[in-house]
Structure prediction request, 282 residues.
Amino acid sequence: MLLFCFSTIVHVSRSSFIRCSSSRQSEEVGMLSEESIYNLIPQNIEKRHKPPRYISQFKNQLWLEQQPNKTKMKTMGPMKVVIPSPKTYLRKHSQEPRLPEKKSFEYPDGHRLPPIPQRKNCPAIPKHDTKNFIKQNVMRARSAKTTQLPPIAVDTVRGNCQLLENSGLLPKFLKKKEYGKVPSYILQKKAQITREEEANRLMAKDQPQKHTERLSSEDRDHILQGLKQNRDKLYQQFILLPLIIETISQKNRKSTLEQELSRLEKDIMLIETNPVIYIKRD
Prediction:
């Protein structure tokens, strides 16, 4: 009798798949053991050949390496144990340590050491020094100067103190040698300025006056007046600028006016501080 089964493909879990496969194998075994139409068809049953057992090539070497770490009959003991005789029982003081037997001393090199020198042959012992170190230390302590602490001044009731010299209570600066005198660096600076002025005067005197001309006082006052007028005009323009400057043109205008004002101030200061001015001829 032919049995046809139609199976549908469904998604099953792993456990259900294993149960189905095991039941199918049991049916096949039952078909082979019992009378069935499937047994009429001869089937080739392949025999599985067992592979040869693995034997390591380092087996003998490993055995030799483990032998030194092993001890025979360590777990259960030897098979036969020699029973001690009752005549060799434990005696008193037999386990105590004993000194070795006395032997005559012999030098290892075969000869004795030289004898100890006699008292009359010993070198003379030097006499001890009669110096009295205690007395010397006492004299040194008496003659030593005592350490004097620097005087201090107490500022507050809680005992805040500082050196008296730095407290300002003593006339420290009044007793200086340089008190009331001009400092040396100022004298050196004045001498240097005097030398420079003398050198400039001699240089101007020796220099030919062909290419230079002294500026008259009228021209000097006229130039100074014109510079001051220009400064006042620029200062008026600078005052009229807005308080809040936002645009780039306003920023550029402000920086230009500041530069012009600083240049005019320098020129005015130069003319006012130098009463004698020489100009170069064309």
User: Anything to note?
Assistant: The mean pLDDT is 82. The chain has six helices and four strands. The CA atoms of residues 115 and 121 lie 12 Å apart.
